[in-house]
Amino acid sequence: MTSQLVALCFDANDPLRLARCWAGVLGWEMANDPHDGIALLPSDDTGFRIRFLPTQEKKTGPNQAHFDLTSTSLDDQQQTVARSLKLGARHIDIGQRPEEGHVVLADPEGNEFCVCEPGNTFLADCGFIGALACDGSQEVGYFWSEALGWPLVWDQDQETAIRSPHGGPKITWGGPPVAPKNGKNRLHFDIAPPVHGDQQAEVERLISLGATRIDIGQRGVSWVVMADPDGNEFCVLTPR
């Protein structure tokens, strides 16, 4: 038994504003979230929703993960950038070189994302969300491959990538050097066993793969908070 990736969750100071921005960028529909946030429902083969959950904590430093959005042409790339800027994004400098074809932006709360140039061969068969690009070790790529049952589609020079057998975005990890973790991540995964699965059995399986149970102050909740081998938080929900 493996878990399914249910959602990618953003901590947000203003969940509604952030959800409206990303709904406009991605062309996804908004829906109410059962835990006081806002959800976006995929309109393509992405396979998971995006949740925006309220927090009082401000963003500090670069995120551990960001979206790489694809482009079919230079005009398409420019349209995505223009649409994002109109929705509240801004250009940022993270040290990218002028000759690099991707455009680096940040959403209204500073969450980084890239609009890739057309002809990106690594993302050639992916949809608009080409990848969730993560800072992380080879070990954590192996962990998530086993946790989700997604095969490795790249494993070279300690860089790894996985992808659902059903398609959708790749999840990539860049290998060393991995930036030191500084507090709780702004983004995290929600995963869940299948409808007839067992949450506790899945937690034990994930521990056997290298995860740990952690306490981030949660009390009286139905989900289990864990950390992957790199220390990145994720939640194991009840079966669904």
UniProtKB/TrEMBL annotation:
Regions crossing the membrane: none
Domain VOC: from-to ranges: 125-239
Family annotation (CDD domains): VOC
Protein name: VOC family protein
